[in-house]
Amino acid sequence: DGESPLRKTRLAPFGMARTTVSNAQFAAFVEETGYRSEAHDYGWSFVFRGLLSEQSGPQPEGLPWWNAVDGATWDHPLGPGSSWRDAPDHPVVHVSWTDARAFAVWAGGRLPTEAEWEHAARGGAALARYPWGDAEPDDTTIFANIWQGQFPDVNTQVDGYYGTAPVRSFEPNAYGLFHMSGNVWEWCAD
After folding, report:
1. Of 3, 34, 42, 57, which is most buried with the most CB atoms under 10 A?
2. For residues 96 and 37, is the Cβ–Cβ distance under 8 A?
């Protein structure tokens, strides 16, 4: 949404991780460095209401599908009582731009620019609309972990997932990169 107009950009060679950062990878980073995420400092984060057993906490204006949950952090993704260990191969959530940048530096890299990310997402197809090509996603043809059904109330889970999917789910794009669309939002340097 709002990603226009297309423009030509010259890029220097760059690398890209094949998957989004998993819970287990982020846990290794935290264990080695003692890093404290911004969600830990704030004491809360937004959680998609459909993942919660009870709806509580404030909702951002105009976005009633999110609930502010005290104690929701990367290691307790649904709040107290939940654990990243229940989904070690799923993407880490509740990670700020600062947290993502710190992880990237620890891992020996950096966040990609938006232009680099878009180039990588297209998998070499310069004008492809989606990472898998030009086919419009719908509720029956599954290319990625996206909502199927009437958002935000009914997810038919045709893709097999209500929330996140493991980081190596579905087919990678032509560059061998997984989930360049769907699953979770990703941070860019700019």
Report:
1. 57
2. yes
CA neighbor of 165 nearest in space, from 151, 180, 149, 146: 146
Q: Which residues, other chains included, contact 80 with Cβ-Cβ below 8 Å and sequence gap of 6+? A: 70, 71
CA angle 68, 69, 75 (to 5 degrees): 125
Which of 189, 172, 190 shows the shortest CA–CA distance to 181? 172
What is the CB neighbour count within 10 angstroms for residue 120?
20
Can you read off the two tokens belonging to residue 29?
A: 């980073």
- Residue 133 DSSP SS3: strand
Report which of 5, 18, 8, 16 is spatially closest to residue 167, judged by C-alpha positions: 18
Rounded CA-CA distance 28/115 in Å is 29
Strand partners, 79: 77
Residue 85, Ramachandran bin (φ over 0: left; ψ between -120 and 50: alpha; else beta): alpha
Q: In this structure, are residues 92 and 25 in contact, taking their beta carbons and an 8 Å threshold? A: yes
What pLDDT, on a 0 to 100 scale, did the predictor assign at position 2?
61
Mean pLDDT of 7-27: 95
Alpha-carbon torsion angle 166, 172, 177, 179, nearest 10: -40
